[in-house]
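Quick check before the chapter quiz. The format below is the same one you will see on the exam, so make sure you can read both the input and the output lines.
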Amino acid sequence: MRIRTAATAMFGLPLVLIACSSSTEPREDLRLSAVPTAITLDGQSVKLTAWAWRDFMPAVPPGGPPLIVMVSLPDHLTGVSVGHVWILYGDKIWEPAVEPTPKPNEWHASGIPTWGPGESAVEVVAQVRDQSGNQFLVRDAEVRVGAAY
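Here is the expected output.
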């Protein structure tokens, strides 16, 4: 287990997160659930959009495919980036590596445990950095886990 610290613009205080590097463990810090669902960038209210699914095509690895999560911010924003993503599921938290996609303002995270699909919903929290280097946390509160068959 490793401890991560992220700045939160919401309170201006450090936010200590307990995250797992290779397995899920009970979430010990529930403050991520309190992260706002919108932030203000360049005077505009901005929401995070997230999708989560598992790809069961064409072959399924032992234990099933990992969860894939995509996050995006509105296309009109310039100079923004996502540095970290946290996936919350029940009393579990996962901090996967996040990478940009070819599409502007979109990022991809995978290798997340085999939660869902179906009735499962996760919360997705992203650390957003604006063009001035300011950091904000924003949350998509209920992301249904889908599947591709």
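If your answer matched, good. The chain is about 0% helix and 50% strand.
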